[in-house]
Amino acid sequence: MRSARRFTLTAATATALATGFLLSTADAGVASEPGTPRTVSSGWSIPWGLSWLPDGSALLTERDSFEVYTLTQDGTKKRIGKVPDVVTTGGEGGLLSIAVSPSWKTDHYVYVMHSAPEGNRIARMTFDDGGLSEYKVVVDGIRKNKYHNGGRIKFGPDGYLYATTGEAQTPELAQDTKSLNGKILRLTPDGRPAPGNPFGNLVYSYGHRNPQGITWDAQGRLWEGELGDSKYDELNLIEPGRNYGWPKCEGNCSTDGMTNPKRQWPVKEASPSAVAYADGAIYMAALRGERLWRIPVDGTNAGTPKAYYTNDYGRLRTVESVPGRNALWLTTTNADSNGDGGPGSDRVFEIGLQ
Predict the structure, then answer these.
(1) Residue limits of the Glucose/Sorbosone dehydrogenase domain (predicted)?
(2) pLDDT tens per residue, range 71-92
(3) Which site from 51, 134, 258, 273 is most exposed, i.e. has the minimal number of CB atoms within 10 Å?
(4) What is the spatial distance between Cα 130 and Cα 154, in angstroms, rounded to a whole number?
(5) Hey, which CATH number is domain 11-352, 2.120.10.30, 3.40.630.30, 2.60.40.730, 3.40.50.1010?
């Protein structure tokens, strides 16, 4: 295994990591081309969540083992603990995303979203040299089901925690602004509604089917990737209080009060999970589509998508930009029931942007 290039943590990068958000240095609408993926680490089974620590290493979750690991940029992997009270759903649930606190250097908090016996929840744990400890539920009351659990959490540039939730195979929940399902949620680190939320609760936007990806561009605009039903998957530009259509709309539609996606794909070409912003483009990891999409963005407009690595590495789950370097990390999900690999068949890649 080749070692990752050494990277220096500058003061600016350290500040950005501490807030959980790193803006790309390039935002002129010019998207770099992704190069050939290099394996950082192998032997994984459904790595789902990925979040960066201030030292440039990453925390990763495994969906079905409920384990959390650190992974350095030279490929050193270390188990740090197992999240309690997690259950599988026999489908897409389990231990999903992870997010490092913007104040991790002082509070040592990490947040996880997972399936529990009574539903999906967001919890907080302490991570230090002793591993994971001090589990505390921050948000519960999110319905779970075998499929459509959403599950991505990230801290935004405003310092609040954002979470994507699926409609738990109950489509009408997506249109109910009192329900936490089929939504993007926005909350304070202790689980209260963030100031300025449009409905006075945790709900930030609604009308979502199964969103699994969120990212912010260099101007702080929120973009979301969403799995559709049988017609179209979506890339949405998220604004507070907007209705993104499901189940009344899938892809573009002319129904009053609905917000259309910026881009849509046939489901066989996408089934998107994570999205990440880097150098003027959104990168979207595709599960069923088995490819990485690059979508140039210019202001609020999304340009023509281009696919990379089609069918080369199987199902792609999580993509994140690497702090301080012009690169991405990308994970596979080939060890699940829809993949063609067994336990330990998944990998973490690094992709240079040129």
Answers:
(1) 46-336
(2) 999 999 999 999 999 999 999 9
(3) 134
(4) 24
(5) 2.120.10.30
